Amino acid sequence: RIVANASHYEALDGIVWTPWGTVLFAEERIVATLKDPAVPNAVGGLVYEYDPQTETTRPLPALGAASHEGMRFDSQGNLYEISESTPGLAGQSGAIFKFVPDTKGDLSSGQLYALKVDDAATKTGPAVWVPLDRDAVQINADAEALRVGATGWRRPEDVEIGTSTGNNRGGTNVLYVATTTDAVVLRIELDGDNAFVSNFVDKANVPGFEDPDNLALDHQ
């Protein structure tokens, strides 16, 4: 049965269960053509939360207006997400984001960060999570990521972390991100406000590796 529907939904793609039993689903739109009346100024797509207990849905603009796809939580309840866009094209960022809620379990308010790698040339090595303006991201998270100099990849897509498998014994501090046009799967070691980025799989070390999109992890 249909559990959520609205005339302004478009290009729904990213979806994930929250640790508290609701469902997030998101719009994969760099520039939305159908505006949500509750968030009319948002440029990009929005993330929505559906509660199966109350059968209600609400937009979550604090997570940023962007082209959403992969979304995953860490064991602290922080959400990792991407902008499926390409740096250099019409204000697109290709950024990787982290959202830290003000109150654990409530995604309506919190701080959105964008990842910035120290070495802009290789886009690997030490990195930091740069805080973004809370009001600006609700209008255009791409523009805000560009403003702070966040690192961009060409079409980030899926996001996975150790908690994706329900295995909390290890690997929960490593984030994997597929970047389709760059043909790279990133490995991002998480350490609070800092991170370390490496190319986990790419066409340089795996001949014929092209256009990665969806990822999955086993228990190892």
What does this structure look like?
- The chain starts with 11 loop residues before the first strand and ends in an 18-residue tail after the last strand.
- A hairpin with a 2-residue loop joins strand 12 and strand 13.
- The strands form 2 sheets. The chain has a 9-stranded antiparallel beta sheet, covered by helices on one side. Strands 1-2-3-4 form a 4-stranded antiparallel beta sheet, with no helix packed on it.
- The protein has one helix at residues 134-147, and strands at residues 12-17, 23-27, 47-51, 56-59, 71-73, 79-82, 96-103, 106-117, 125-131, 156-161, 174-179, 184-191, 194-202.
- It is built from 1 helix and 13 strands, in the order βββββββββαββββ.
- With 220 residues, it is mostly beta strands.
Distance between the termini: 35 Å
Estimate the helix proportion, in percent: under 10%
Q: Helical region count?
A: 1
Please tell me what the overall shape is: globular
Strand order of the largest sheet: 5-6-7-8-9-13-12-11-10
The helix-and-strand class reads mainly beta
Summarize the helix and strand pattern as letters: EEEEEEEEEHEEEE
Poorly predicted tracts of residues: none
Q: Main β-sheet, in a few words?
A: 9 strands, antiparallel
Mean pLDDT: 95
How are the secondary structure elements laid out?
Layout: E1 12-17, E2 23-27, E3 47-51, E4 56-59, E5 71-73, E6 79-82, E7 96-103, E8 106-117, E9 125-131, H1 134-147, E10 156-161, E11 174-179, E12 184-191, E13 194-202
Antiparallel strand pairs: 1-2, 2-3, 3-4, 5-6, 6-7, 7-8, 8-9, 9-13, 10-11, 11-12, 12-13
